[in-house]
Specification:
elongated, alpha+beta, Alpha-Beta Plaits, 3 helices, 7 strands, four-stranded mixed beta sheet, 140 residues
């Protein structure tokens, strides 16, 4: 059975066709798993677009677990593109290595799919002082 579009336009892939039925995993599921695994890594501030785009996405409810993740699901493998925002002071290479390990293991553990390709794009650095609330009113 070929891949087909799910109810919300995401691709649904059949990964197991047994005598008791089939197992299908949508791209949205793998995106959520990837997002949650990456966010658990120390040094990862967030996923998705950095700077202004980050604030706009949160303001309009775009803070889903799969935000900043794009996947292609095959019958046994998955390819992942991940946009990452790293916390200032952490080694980008170390953080990306830990993200690669965490995502690869979690996707395999939860779906049985192997990660063939994981492209990590560091789109921003988060500086903790950026979001400190000011005690002064903006206007007088």
């Amino acid at each position: 059975m070929p891949d087909k579009k799910g109810e919300q336009g995401t691709t649904v892939t059949t990964i197991d066709k047994g005598s008791q039925g089939t197992v299908k995993i949508s791209e949205a599921v793998v995106e959520s798993i990837t997002g949650m695994a990456a966010r658990e890594v120390e040094g990862v501030q967030d996923l998705g677009k950095g700077g202004f785009g980050r604030g706009v996405a949160k303001a309009f409810g775009g803070d889903s677990p799969g935000r900043g993740v794009k996947v292609e699901v095959g019958t046994t493998e998955v390819a992942i593109d991940l946009n990452l925002i790293v916390l200032f002071g952490h080694s980008i290479q170390d953080v990306c290595g830990r993200v690669r390990t965490a995502v690869t293991q979690r996707v395999a553990q939860m779906t049985g799919l192997s990660v063939k390709e994981l492209n990590i794009n560091v789109v921003d650095i988060y500086f903790p002082d950026e979001e400190k609330p000011s005690n002064e009113p903006r206007v007088q």
